[in-house]
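All the exercises in this workshop are built on plain-text protein records. A record pairs a protein's sequence with a compact description of its fold. Read left to right, the backbone structure tokens trace the chain's path through space. Once this layout is familiar, the rest of the handout is easier to follow. Here is such a record, shown just as it appears in the course material:
>
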Amino acid sequence: MQDPLSLPLPGREGEEVELLETHPANPKRLTSRSRERVRAIDVVFEADARERDLGDVLAERRLRTAAQTALPERSAHLVELVAAHREEIDEQLSTHSRDWPLHRMPAVDRAILRTGAAEILHDTPADGIGPVIGEYATIARELSTEDSPRFVNGLLQRIGEMRDLLG
């Protein structure tokens, strides 16, 4: 097996990166709600990486998970939102990401953005979208590239602004 330190880091140039192993986010930096979001992102990422139906992967993760705890209901709910609205979410992300088509984004960013957009568009909490966007940017800081937090924050902000204009 290749030394993980010698692997190329995913960047914004769209190069393909083979998934060899995953590393969990630092739980000390994440709220319990953020950890539920990370668990949902893991399922969305897995379905994308394995090119499998999101509903099938969710059903498997409800039965068996690599984590020591069961998939939280909130995480499952977020995955269900992504699955139910995937076409609309991808269209919104493609429309508002300007120069970055979905297939060129790092896979982890795609999973973060799909989950965040699903929550913003279809499950906005009472305290608004600001805290939601902030948490997804924090998750991106923990899980993805150096540029990802700003990218995730900006794109989710655009989607939130459009949602407010249309809603």
Q: What stands out?
A: The longest helix spans residues 148-166. Residues 1-25 have pLDDT under 50 and may be disordered. Residues 23 and 143 are 8 Å apart (CA to CA). Helices lie at 32-49, 54-63, 73-84, 86-96, 107-122, 130-143, 148-166.
